[in-house]
Amino acid sequence: MTRPDPSPDSRPAGLAARGSGSVRRQAVRAGLRTVTTATGLVVGYYLLPMDAEFSGGSAVGVVVGLMGMLALFAWQINTIARSPSPRLRAVEALSTTVPLFLLLFSAAYYLLERSTSGSFTEPLTRTDSLYFTLTVFSTVGFGDITAVTQTARVLTMVQMVGNILLVGVAAKVVAGAVRTGLHRKEMGAKGEEAKGDGADRGGDGAGGV
After folding, report:
1. Within the chain, where are the H helices?
2. pTM for the whole thing?
3. Which end of the chain is more exposed for a tag (fewer CB within 10 A), N or C?
4. Which residues, including other chains, have CB under 8 Å from residue 73's CB and lie 6 or more apart?
């Protein structure tokens, strides 16, 4: 006695429902990881002991930090292109790269003001430093806090150049990695579909013998 095959419409509907639920779960997990990462970085910025003064070593630290961020960004681009959910992976990558970039300069501004009082138009707390970094990043430019000394202005210019690269170049690179990941996923799905069709044809042939 042969078992009746499920209707053609019921199988795709069930697969679509399971796929939709899986996507929702992935989106929720990605959102939680994004919020957790950004929150952890900000909390670390406020808890990290920064008692040293801004010096040559601090400048080298900024450069090393930027290089490390670039290395992390390059690794994230590779993971985006290979991820089964490239869009979600891109959001997670940006949730790490952008806060790291901003907090790195916030710490540098804070240390600079501690070492050279008057580097800015007013003394900077950690919150003030983060506020100034965000105004430079967003190009709002309220003008309530401005760089006064040459060192402060050079550091601010470095951030401005980094802003352009991060918003302009990095965004295009991330978008390209997402397209690559979606194309890879689409080709993989077509390959699995072709294998399934081949198996079905093989089974039909065997049954006919």
Report:
1. 10-47, 56-82, 86-115, 126-137, 150-164, 171-208
2. 0.71
3. N
4. 93, 97, 170
